[in-house]
Structure formats: structure tokens, C-alpha cells
Design a protein that fits this description.
There is one protein chain. With 721 residues, the protein is an alpha/beta fold. It has helices spanning 6-13, 19-35, 59-81, 89-98, 101-116, 120-141, 144-155, 164-179, 186-216, 232-244, 258-267, 271-282, 294-310, 316-321, 329-360, 372-384, 388-392, 397-412, 498-515, 531-542, 548-554, 566-574, 580-599, 607-618, 634-637, 648-665, 672-683, 691-699, 706-711; strands spanning 2-3, 218-221, 252-255, 414-419, 430-436, 442-451, 461-466, 477-485. The strands form 2 sheets. It has a 6-stranded mixed sheet, sandwiched between helices. The chain has a two-stranded antiparallel ribbon with strand order 2-3. Helix 6 (120-141) packs antiparallel against helix 9 (186-216), helix 15 crosses helix 16 (372-384) and helix 18 runs parallel beside helix 19 (498-515). It is globular. The structure holds zinc ion.
Length: 721
């Protein structure tokens, strides 16, 4: 996953505000300024062109800092809009790029707090400020004088004389303003802004409800028999989770997060507890309590539909996909529907293998939802003699990090060196300087925050703290990777699963995308690309985990230090497509429901009913649940980010699989020429060129779906995308 910080993401999607709010910002801003210097408002100081002042920020700083920075941003916008000189690229488009830098700095740290250190105090600020931030971006995109200037620059013949990057920047601003309603009449603009502010409140509430359910619910493991089947490393991590919760009498606690639940479902011999843990997890946000997300979803969908209609689109999905690589919901649906039957057919085979095994064991059960991971693991052992917990002994968190650095060195010519003395928001976070291996040139900083904690969102993500640009001298990149590993015992290495190691490479791929950026303007920088393209660089990097160069050096046993035996590697390879039916189907079910929810029009949707009926119509296998059920689908409902966009992972994976074949057609995964072409055309260009064109420059042609089907072990369809 990749996090644009929240409000810049909504900026492009947004739209108007009452003038009185303007005064409110300024008056409270003045009061705040009386008291003490607010660290959020200062330029970032220190080495590397400045670093975020995490050591000095307090929750009470956010509101006054946001208010001051928002007021200043509006003033900057007013000056651009009311400039008496004729509009030019420089005094309008570049001026816009330069505006809002202070607000961006505040929002960056605001977003980091929300994802990593959310507390009741902070959540109050979030709730109060999110509609105001939505209103601010509307106030900017609905400024008619400003839009007339942007339009004049965009339509001026002089634009053709500028560089391709400058032309694309003008196009981007023009398009974003139009898509945000700049061409609407005053009444429509007013309604649009109301919608955006309501949505901002609902998104925040949705995310907070999810966090409350994940933090507040857990299953206590009380006796030795509750631990049956769990490997020692897992027992240790559940024990430390219990200690963190101060449950002194418990042997362990399964938290209501993916990283805690999935291993339990894989290893626990206790079918009753598996069912209990599974039901806790899949009912997040759907418990009919104060944290229930269903009514919020209904309202979000209605507001999104109304907004799309106001803007002149058939549905929210049509509006969202217009500036994606797929362009239309129909093209995204076509791809999903090409893959779906193959995935479901594979699930039938997987279930049949599992049922046979369960019958042979005399389990006397029918495979149910809470059995899939458990029996899949048994089949994996029986069929491929591959034991995940054996693999895990060769996957140490620190070594996998070193492996990522090795790959970045080989493909990107980057060197990573840990630096000290840089402020962090938690002692677990480490900071690394990235330099060019040959010239020693400073490239950027990479912050790494691997461990779970209370108040941190579940899952893993990349975040851009500062984007590369060179409008006035080079500004270097600061990025982070965050995940939710559970700390083991003091002094012992943290062992992670193959899937988790893959996810680390994935997020690191986003980080490298940010770090490789080589553009002039921040709006076009790094990972600021189409949603269905942004997962391509990250998914591509996953492929390097299984290269012999990585496994032999870095997949070493945590006790003996011996590299992973070739026989085990061979087993991993043979089992590579194992359970792809499950993985693809649980993902596609979410992606299809997301798209169908946003194509459903203006009807009042009951999310549970819609989900049930849609899945039934699709022929969803009864043994699998969606990867993200609707009431916990944060990608789609805690922001506009991946709404009608969860298909993006599959879309990007088509490109990914096709791109990796370019290496295989060359000298292999470490082919320097292909890597150089990849960096030049894909990783370094940000959004300065159309992604389809960028890909053609790398590959010489458009991506084809065949490589994806092959990668997942599915038959290649006769009719290809
Ligand atoms: Zn991602």
C-alpha cells in the first residue's frame, strides 16, 4: 500500500467554502502565535536540507499550525489569482507549485501522526480539522479568477514552446481543477463543497472506527491447550502482545489485526479458536455497535454518486478512472473478469486437495472459512514438503532489510548507511542516508518503522515525507517504510514469513520510486502517478526476493547462520503458484465489490446485503471471504484514495509481470542494461510523461496479460487484454 498524505490526495479530488471560515482561521491563529513557537510551522532544520522535527511536536501544536498554514496558503492563492500581470506559466502554474509548502510540511507530520501515533487527543484534532481541510482545497479549486488564469496558460499557444514536463504540469493543474468542479456554477460549487466536507468527516470516522475495533478486541489464549499447533516464535509474539496489554495471567493474545490473526489461522490446531479469531477479524466495523461502519458506507456512496453527477460523470467510478491508466471502469472490469474464472477454478482444486487431506486425517469436517489457511498449510507441506515455519527460520527482519539494500545497490546504484541523531517519532524508528554508490552524491533519507504499536494503522505502507524537486535548487527525497511486525524477545532476531518479506520488498519498491525521482516540479515527482500505475514499481521489486543472489547471501538461518539450503529454495519455487486461487480470489472479490459499489448509481445501498448479493452473483466460493470486507475496507472508505481503484493492484501486476519478463529476456534479474532502462523510463520520471508512453519507452510495446497469467499459474485466455 502506498499513502499519499490524506489531504493532498483529496485536493485533486475536491471542491468551496464560506468566506467566514477564513476569518476563523486567522483569528485563532493569532491567539496561538502569542504563546510559543510552533515547531510544525518552522522550516525543517538540521542536515540533509532539513528533517521533520519529530522530537518537538506535541498533539496540541497541530490545530494552531494547521490554521496558520491554511490561512497563509489562502493568502498565497489570493495573490496568484489577483496578480495584475497577464497570466504566464511562471506567475500562475509555477507560483501554484511554490504555494502551500508550509501547509504541506504540517500536513505531512499530521498524516504521520494519524497513521502511527493516533491517540484520542489526536483523533479529536483530526475530526475537527478534516472538514476544514476539505473546505480549503475546495476554496482553492473553486477560485474562478485563479482557474481563469490556469485555463489561459493551458490554452495559450506559448505553452507548446515549453518543455514536455512543463506542458504536462500545466495539463495536470488544469485537469485537476476541472475535475474538482472549477467549471461549475456557484450553486453547484457550494453543494460540491458541502459534499466534500461531509465526506472528509465520514472518512475520518470510518478509519477511527476501524482502529477502535482493531485495538479494542482480541482473543486471549489462556492455557497451554489454547496454544496447540503454534510454533515457538508465534507463541513468543502472542506472549509479548499480552504483556503489552498488561494481561499478566494470559499465555498470549491474538490481536484483531491481520499480522496477528493470519498466522493464528494458519497454525492453530484449535478449530474452535480459529473460528473465534476469524469471526472477530472479519466482523471489524460490522458489529452493530458504536463503531459500526455500515451507515457511514451508505452515506459515503450516496455522496460520491451525487458529486460525480454534479461533475458531469455517469458514476463515481467513471470520474475516478478518467485520469487512471485504465481510463474507464469497463476496461478495469474487463481485466478482472478475464482473471476471475481462472482464479475461482483454481480455488475448487485447492479446496478439493484440502478436503481430501482432512478426510484422510479423519477430521470429519467440511472445509470452512476458518479452515482455509490451516489446511492450505498442511497441503503445502504434503504436496511440496514446504513448511512455512521452516522457511521463516531463514528470514530475519534485519537480514531482509540488508537484502533490499543489496538489490537497491545492484539495480539503482544506491548505498544505504544508518545515520544517528535525526529526530524520530518513536525510538523504534531508524534513519538511513541514501547515496549514489559511485559518486557519493546524497540522494535522500529512508525512515524505517517496522514494529506494531497501539495507535498505529495495521498493514504496511510507504509514505513520502518530502518530495524531490528542483524549482529553486535541488530538494532531496525523504521517504518512510512502515510495517507491523511483532517484536520478539529482547535480543532475539524477528523472524518473518515469506509473505511478509515479499511485502517488505513491495513497500521498499515504493520507497525506491520516490528516491529515484529526477524531476523539476513537486506535483509530478516520485510516486505522484496514476493510482493503477503506482503499484507497478512496488510489485516489480517483489520479484528480487526469490533471486539466488538474495537468498544465498541474506536468507541465513537465525541460529546457525547457514544460508537457506538449495533443496528448500527449490521447494519454494515449486510451490510459488500454490494457493494462487485463494490469493487472487480473495483480492478480486474485494476489487470487484469496490467497483460494483461505485457503479451502482444513486440507490441507497445496504453494504452487507450488496456484498452478499454481489458475491453470490459472481459465484464466490463459500470457503473464502473477501480480503477486505466492505465495513473494514479502509482503502476505499477512509479516503477517496483507492475507491473504485482497488483493481489497481491487478492492473499494475499485469504491467509488473510483463516488465519482469524484460529482465528474463535479457541477462536475468540483475541485467544492468534493463535496470538502467527501467530507472530512466519508469522510476525516475514521476508523472512527467503519460504512464502508457513511459512503459512503451521501457518495453518497446504495451504490456500484455499473458505474463500475469503465467506468473500466477493460470491458463492463458484466448482473448487477451
Ligand atoms: Zn503498494
Amino acid at each position: 500500500m502506498y499513502k499519499l498524505f490524506l489531504y493532498v490526495a483529496t485536493f485533486a479530488a475536491a471542491i468551496f467554502v464560506s468566506q467566514s471560515m477564513n476569518f476563523e482561521f486567522i483569528s485563532s491563529a493569532v491567539h496561538a502565535a502569542d504563546k510559543r513557537e510552533n515547531p510544525l510551522l518552522a522550516e525543517w532544520k538540521g542536515p540533509y536540507g532539513g528533517v521533520p522535527p519529530f522530537d518537538r511536536v506535541k498533539v496540541e501544536d497541530f490545530k494552531p499550525a494547521l490554521e496558520i498554514a491554511m490561512a497563509e496558503n489562502l493568502e498565497e492563492i489570493r495573490r496568484i489569482a489577483e496578480n495584475p500581470d497577464a497570466p504566464t506559466f511562471e506567475n500562475t502554474i509555477v507560483a501554484l507549485e511554490r504555494s502551500g509548502q508550509k501547509l504541506n510540511r504540517v500536513l505531512t507530520i499530521f498524516g504521520i501522526w494519524g497513521s502511527n501515533l493516533s491517540s484520542p487527543d489526536f483523533q479529536k484534532v483530526e475530526e475537527e480539522m478534516s472538514p476544514k481541510l476539505a473546505a480549503l482545497s475546495d476554496q482553492i479549486t473553486q477560485n474562478s479568477a485563479l482557474f481563469r488564469r490556469i485555463e489561459a496558460v493551458y490554452e495559450s499557444p506559448a505553452l507548446k514552446k515549453l518543455s514536455p514536463e512543463q506542458q504536462r504540469l500545466a495539463w495536470l493543474h488544469y485537469t485537476n481543477f476541472v475535475r474538482a468542479g472549477a467549471k461549475l456554477g456557484p450553486e453547484e460549487k457550494k453543494r460540491l463543497s458541502e459534499i466534500n466536507q461531509k465526506l472528509a468527516v465520514l472518512f475520518t470516522k470510518f478509519g477511527q472506527n476501524l482502529l477502535a475495533e482493531e485495538g479494542g478486541q482480541y482473543v486471549v489464549l489462556e492455557s497451554e491447550s489454547d496454544l496447540a499447533g503454534l510454533p515457538q516464535s508465534l507463541r513468543d509474539s502472542y506472549a509479548s502482545a499480552a504483556a503489552a496489554k498488561k494481561l499478566t495471567n494470559a499465555l498470549g493474545v491474538v490481536l484483531n489485526t491481520r499480522s496477528s490473526v493470519e498466522p493464528f489461522l494458519t497454525y492453530s490446531d484449535r478449530r474452535d479458536l480459529r473460528k473465534k479469531v476469524f469471526e472477530m477479524f472479519i466482523n471489524r466495523g460490522d458489529n452493530g455497535n458504536e463503531y459500526d461502519n455500515n451507515a457511514i458506507i451508505t452515506e459515503i456512496l450516496q455522496l460520491r454518486y451525487e458529486r460525480a453527477r454534479l461533475l458531469g460523470y455517469q458514476t463515481h467510478a467513471h470520474w475516478r478512472l478518467e485520469n487512471a491508466m485504465a481510463k474507464t471502469p469497463e476496461r478495469a472490469m474487463e481485466l478482472m473478469e478475464t482473471v476471475w474464472p481462472a482464479a475461482v477454478a483454481r480455488v475448487r482444486e485447492e479446496v478439493s486437495d484440502m478436503q481430501t487431506l482432512a478426510d484422510k486425517e479423519g477430521a470429519n469436517i467440511k472445509i470452512e472459512l476458518w479452515d482455509y489457511r490451516y489446511y492450505a498449510e498442511k497441503v503445502r507441506k504434503a504436496k511440496y514438503d514446504l513448511d512455512q515455519s521452516e522457511v521463516k527460520q531463514y528470514l530475519q527482519l534485519d537480514k531482509i532489510r540488508e537484502a533490499m539494500f543489496f538489490v537497491a545497490g545492484e539495480l539503482f546504484n544506491f548505498n544505504f548507511k544508518q545515520v544517528s541523531g535525526i529526530p524520530v517519532f518513536h525510538p523504534d524508528v531508524t534513519v538511513w542516508e541514501v547515496t549514489d554508490k559511485t559518486t557519493g552524491r546524497h540522494i535522500g533519507l529512508w525512515y524505517f518503522d517496522p514494529y506494531a504499536r497501539e495507535g498505529k494503522s495495521s498493514g504496511a505502507w510507504m509514505n513520502a515525507y518530502r518530495e524531490q524537486q528542483r524549482m529553486n535548487g535541488e530538494v532531496t527525497t525523504i521517504v518512510s517504510n512502515n510495517s507491523n511486525f511483532i517484536k520478539g524477545k529482547e535480543g532475539e532476531p524477528v523472524l518473518i514469513s515469506w509473505d511478509d518479506a515479499t511485502t517488505m520488498f513491495h513497500e521498499f519498491g515504493h520507497a525506491l520510486h520516490g528516491l529515484s525521482s529526477n524531476v523539476t516540479y513537486p506535483s509530478l515527482s516520485g510516486t505522484n502517478v496514476a493510482r493503477d500505475y503506482v503499484e507497478f514499481p512496488s510489485q516489480l521489486l517483489e520479484h528480487w526476493l526469490s533471486t539466488p543472489e538474495v537468498l544465498q547471501r541474506f536468507a541465513v538461518h537465525y541460529k546457525t547462520g547457514k544460508p537457506i539450503p538449495q533443496s528448500l529454495v527449490d521447494k519454494i519455487k515449486r510451490a510459488a503458484n500454490f494457493n494462487q486461487g485463494f490469493a487472487t480470489t480473495e483480492y478480486l472479490a474485494s476489487a470487484l465489490v469496490d467497483m460494483k459499489l461505485h457503479l451502482a448509481g444513486g440507490q441507497k445501498i445496504d453494504p452487507d446485503k450488496f456484498e452478499r448479493e454481489t458475491l453470490a452473483a459472481l459465484g464466490m466460493p463459500g470457503e473464502i471471504v473477501m480480503r477486505h470486507r466492505t465495513p473494514q475496507f479502509g482503502h476505499v472508505f477512509s479516503g477517496d484514495g483507492y475507491s473504485a481503484g482497488y483493481y489497481s493492484y491487478l492492473w499494475s501486476d499485469v504491467i509488473t509481470a510483463d516488465a519482469f519478463e524484460a529482465f528474463l529476456e535479457g541477462k536475468g534479474p540483475y541485467d544492468k542494461d534493463v535496470a538502467a532502462r527501467l530507472v530512466k523510463n519508469i522510476f525516475s520520471v514521476g508523472n512527467t510523461i503519460d504512464p502508457a508512453e513511459a512503459y512503451r519507452r521501457f518495453r518497446g510495446r504495451d504490456p500484455r496479460v499473458e505474463a500475469l497469467m503465467k506468473k500466477r499459474g493460470f491458463p492463458i485466455p484466448s482473448k487477451s487484454k
